Amino acid sequence: MRSYLLGGACAASMLLALAPVAQAADIEVAPEPMGLGWYVSVFGGWSHAKDESGSFETTAAVSSAAYYFDLELDDGFTAGIALGAQINEWLRGEVELSGNWHDAEGFVEFDDSSPDATTLDGDETALFALANLWLEVPIGLGPLRPYAGGGVGFGRLDLDIETSGSTLFDDADWGFAWQLGAGVAFDVSESIAIDVGYRYKRIENVDIEVEDVFGDSSDIEKDYKSHNFLVGLRFGF
Cβ distance 155 to 175 under 8 Å? Predict the structure, then answer.
């Protein structure tokens, strides 16, 4: 009888000892919230800009005239760098510095007695400082992560255009800039991703000074628009 009592006491002691362990096993531990994951992105690619046209007026010593120009921007290249943070699984924000470079050619003509057009040659550069926000959609495709979004900021448009050995445009100005884009990121490792994407970029309402090769002249107001296809690398830290 005594041995039974001792055995029951031992069993009860073991159950009491294991009870806290069983209760702890039933408690689900909530995951820690995701913190900021910082990264640096470098990218480059192909840029196709929309051709540009416009007019300006001159006041020569004898009479005034209106001039019309057409500027064809060759396909160029884009390159840039961004510093960003993965805010959560869905969202990341970044600050971007980038540029687009194009050769340019065209002609300028005027409405006075001369019927001839004068050829243009030079280059155009668009620089961007943008704050971007990208929405990433976890769709369960393993290392593939599609995204879409855009950004706003400032852009600097620089024209260096000559005509018949004289300078027509040699000026730069800042304007409001923005972009829209989408792409797919491919995770190579936990800290490196390849980014393939598209960006539509614009700079609005910049004022460019016309040189006085045709006499005193008015400035022109113009926009910059481009389609950009890029490939980049993203490094997390």
Answer: yes
Residue 61 DSSP SS3 = coil
Residues sharing a CB contact under 8 Å with residue 86, sequence separation 6 or more, in sequence order: 34, 36, 37, 38, 39, 92, 236
Instruction: Walk me through the domains of the chain, giving residue ranges and CATH numbers.
Output: 34-216+226-236 (2.40.160.20)
CA-to-CA separations, 19 to 11, 147, 194, in angstroms, rounded: 12, 49, 51
Q: Torsions phi, psi of 24, nearest 5? A: -65, -35
Low-confidence residues of the chain: pLDDT under 70: 1-36, 59-64, 111-116, 212-217
CB 161 within 8 A of CB 121: yes
Take residue 85 and report the two structure tokens written for it: 């943070």
Q: Which residues contact 3 (CB under 8 A, 6 or more apart)?
A: none
Contacting residues for 126 by C-beta, under 8 A, at least 6 apart: 49, 99, 100, 155, 156, 157, 158, 201, 203, 224, 226
CA distance 179 to 124: 19
Nearest to 132 by CA among 79, 95, 83, 170: 95
Three-state DSSP state, 41: strand
Amino acid code (one letter) for 101? W
Residues linked to residue 142 through DSSP beta bridges, in sequence order? none
pLDDT digits (tens, 9 = 90+) for 106-124: 988 876 545 567 899 999 9
Closest among 34, 37, 36 to 236, alpha carbons compared = 37
